[in-house]
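2.7 Reproducibility. Because tokenized structures are sensitive to small changes in the input, we list the exact sequence used for 1-phosphofructokinase, including any N-terminal residues retained from the expression construct. No trimming or masking was applied before prediction.
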Amino acid sequence: MILTVTPNPSLDRTYEIPALDRGAVLRATADRIDPGGKGVNVSRAVAAAGHRTLAVMPLGGPAGAALAGLLGAEGIEVAGVPVTGHTRSNISAVEPDGTLTKINATGPELTAAEAEALLAAVGARSGGADWVACCGSLPRGLPPEWYAELVARAHRAGARIALDTSGPSLTAALRERPDVVKPNAEELAQAVGRPLATVGDAVKAAEELRAAGARAVLASLGADGQLLVDGAGAHFAGAPVATVRSNVGAGDASLAGFLVAGGTGVRALAAAVAYGAAAVQLPGSLMPAPADLVPAAVTTTDDVPLARPLTEPVNRALSSGSREDMRRP
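Resulting structure tokens (single pass, no recycling of outputs):
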């Protein structure tokens, strides 16, 4: 059973549009509304694969009720923690070439009592979980150390932890030694405080996260593929994608595939790539089912192409704050 934790879930409405023309009245060619939030998407992909999942999250207001209803319709068990604020709603606009413009609402501010209730809900249920996937940004009211406390409690309950977050929340949690962390290229660059231009740069950054506490790093490099860096070394995998329809939730689908396949080793890496490649070819944040996967298209190797330039290098200026956080005891 895979338990997911989404501290800041949402309702996600996606519009497919011919082009994003600022200031114009745009007419969508298609639209859909889906449950949103990184952990929520992991649960949806796990459920679509026929595995049991439990989604823990704060829920408030009509949007929270609608979110729980949508998840229930997908056969997902929800452990909602009532909060006084309202669950947020997000909007995505997707152009024909796959370009995504997303507007994320802030979400509710949780009180100290609500933050503790969310931790308690995870602790009470994580003992029966094979994996606890902690995913997404933290809402207002939760300090960066909140994920670190969650990882510590889940470990004490005997569960393995997959962590998909970024910035101070990631660096603070590393000291509790999550079993796998899943940054994308930008988040990886932010964590080490420097640009990434090649696959080799990404490998070095992943090794630094391991040195800081992560037992394994599953790094999404966009169109270039994915890296797994763990105690056995570095492995690289990729798959061709004919058409990108929407990349909303593709990283979440990848994490679900990784965990469904056991969460360790090359086999799990290949599953992560297969799930991610399938997800980007689906509309909105629709999660892939087994019929959407093409495992034969995935290639894996331990001969990592270190010199290969990243298609989308992370060259923006990065502060040293995250790097300094990683050095703290």
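The first strand starts at residue 2 and ends at 5.
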